[in-house]
Amino acid sequence: MDSLITAAARALAMGNPLGALNRVALRDDAAALALRGIAMAQLGDLDRAKALMRQAARAFGPREAVARARCVVAEAEIALASRDLAWPTKTLAMALKTLEAHDDRVNAAYARYLDARRCLLIGHLDEAEHRLARLDLSGMTPALRAIHELAVAGISMRRVRARAARSALIRAEEAARWARIPALAAEVEQAFAVLDTPVARLIARGEERPLLLEEVEALLASEALVIDACRNLVRERDMLLPLAKRPVLFALARMLGEAWPEDVSRDELLINAFGAKHADESHRARLRVEIGRLRGLLRAVARVSATKRGFALSPRHAREVIVLARPVEERHAAVLALLADGESWSGSALALALGVSQRTVQRALEELAAAGKAQAFGRGRARRWTTPPLPAFATTLLLPAPLPGG
Fold this sequence. Notes:
Elements: H1 3-13, H2 17-24, H3 30-43, H4 46-59, H5 65-81, H6 89-101, H7 105-121, H8 125-133, H9 142-158, H10 162-179, H11 182-195, E1 200-204, E2 207-211, H12 213-220, E3 225-228, E4 233-236, E5 239-242, H13 247-259, E6 264-265, H14 266-274, H15 281-298, E7 302-306, E8 310-315, E9 321-325, H16 333-339, H17 347-354, H18 358-370, E10 375-377, E11 384-386
Parallel strand pairs: 3-9
Antiparallel strand pairs: 1-2, 1-9, 3-4, 4-5, 6-8, 7-8, 10-11
Helix pairs in contact: 1-2, 1-3, 2-3, 3-4, 3-5, 4-5, 5-6, 5-7, 6-7, 7-8, 7-9, 8-9, 9-10, 9-11, 10-11, 13-14, 13-15, 17-18
């Protein structure tokens, strides 16, 4: 490898894409094309970067299997940055095998991190943890150690383990300091900011206040009966009663939880849970049926008692009832949470991350665009969606991943 290629590679490793381009911008050999692609990716021109990486992979000869595999890994990173979640993971797996077979431990580890980050992004936390657990941390570069700890912190945040996330970020910060890569240090700093930003709201006794991730973790470990509106379930310590598929029952439970220790009138329940503008006897009969079902589901943790004007909730063991709500009450909160990471998303990538149909996502995006909460650019398959970050709130609890035990 000649001196210009070596110098450009070192510049990229230090996060200096312009310095790398100054050395290889006018060259079109395979190694230069690959380095130019990485430089363009660091500068944010992902479409150009993807084209250069594919051109470089074709330019490397059939005997240069390791170089071609490295191009595949780089293209996978670009796909992840551009939220192309449908990028063929089998291709990355084949590149990983090639790198491991040729003892390229650094790039093989990076390929595993990309796979883990994709799993994290679409909410497959168990798979992400499994991939990270298979990595050998000995002999890793400071940059890879920082990336590893960022992935660990991301999983911990999504599982609402604030202490574990903070510890991982402290280790990431130290590794990033040794790596001396500004972009990596900025990513660690941004992750730290999430821990100091409200991620949910606590509603109890007619009042509400924002909660940090650490406070949510403490609340979930407390003795309180929690009506969890982030995942639509009722929980008391390790006992979980999922109601995500029973929206009417959860709406009733939430109303009773927000009113606790007071009761809720029958008219309020009918209007808010059933959307009944004018309650008649059929609505009241349905309310009695649904309250009976709710009693049965909550029997182990709470009673639902009839009062003169309506119904009241009373916990069996807990001393208080708390409603844990999303930081932003929005019909399409999960879509907004993904868009709020500042990257541009395709409709297909959003559908994959949320586990719903593309048509469902498209309807949500159209409604958000009409409300001025999302905007699109490009056409056809190149169409992408984005939105400014949600002000003053982190989106950890909006993302499509289960809470602890959920």
